[in-house]
Amino acid sequence: MQGDAGVIERLNGYLQIELTGHKQYLLAAAACAHAGLGRLREAQTAYVHEETAHAERILQRILLLGGVPVPTDLGVAAPAATAEEQLRRDEALVARAIDYLRGAVAYCASVGDEGSRGLLVEMLIDEEQHLDWLEQQLRL
């Protein structure tokens, strides 16, 4: 099946965000384990798995549409000095993902690709829930 080139481009763009998140949350989980923050490590590890699952679904969609996946990440992940700093970095990444997804969802709707739109809406909802969780943690 041949998909719209703009949809494939946007799927690849979101794939890059997901892979950046995977790397960032993996590093954060290790830092939390080292600092003795077991519950935060568990949450970060869960987000590592979620990002991996999202990336796999995006890859599959790109292939279904006849596109070429570009599984690179453009983000830099570095250890944070504190848990709060890490949560703020995560918050910035998730906010970026939400903005990106809103545009990608609108584009998919504009070209009539309801399958890609639906997939990206699911991921948008996950990102919004993640942002809510991060905001709660930062208020604590």
Describe this structure in words.
- The protein is mostly helical.
- The protein is 80% helix and 0% strand.
- Helix 3 (83-110) packs antiparallel against helix 4 (114-139).
- The radius of gyration is 16 Å and the shape is elongated.
- The mean pLDDT is 94.
Helix content: over 70%
Total helices: the number is: 4
The topology string of helices and strands comes to HHHH
Provide the gyration radius in Å.
16 Å
Query: Structural class, judged by helices and strands?
Result: mainly alpha
Globular, elongated, flat, extended or rod-shaped: what is the shape?
elongated
Largest sheet properties? none
Poorly predicted sequence stretches spanning 5 or more consecutive residues: none
Question: Strand percentage, roughly?
Answer: under 5%
Mean pLDDT value: 94
- Subunit arrangement of the protein: single chain
Total strand segments: 0
- Quote the distance from N terminus to C terminus: 48 Å
